[in-house]
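Standup notes
- DV: blocked on the single-chain target, sequence here:
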Amino acid sequence: MFIALVLEGLTVLQSPAALRASPGETVTLSCSFENTQGSVAKATWTIAPGVVLDSAHPFYSGRLRMSHLDLLQKGEATLTLSELELRDSGLYQCHISIHRGESGTGAGTELLVTGRNQSDTGAPGGRELCQDSGPLVYRAVISLSLVVLVSLGIILSLRPWNGVPVDTVVGAGSEPRRHRGRCL
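- DV (later): unblocked, structure below
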């Protein structure tokens, strides 16, 4: 579905309007515009609130690709974002400037990066939930084990000790041997 937003004279259609993805996935956002004369065009992509995306920025290093000049001359622009992270979620807008003075902005694509894979309807798939629950179970078991160990350590350190003193030569908790005139 394309959504158009006419702000400065040039109609820019952007798709999709909304997109859900999982961390680690790759998405491609598109916009199209009238460039009948094949003029030089420039596409700038922003994420709300108007932050310009820059592939040289350390956060996007190696993860961001924008369309080439030949595609822009045909009236199309794309943004590909790979290795998605949760913080990549937001409203992405395509801003187009054509050499002959026209410019326009797309209505935007709302990208939602979620912790699990979901279909376009938003209904979670059965298999994806099972795959995501594995690490969660392990974390819960490890956390519970640590709580038990720490609790045991605290209980043992607070309990008064009524045992036999430890003698490193003889051994812990044992009575010293009596030797009757014999040398060992």
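- Follow-up: Residues 170 and 177 are 8 Å apart (CA to CA).
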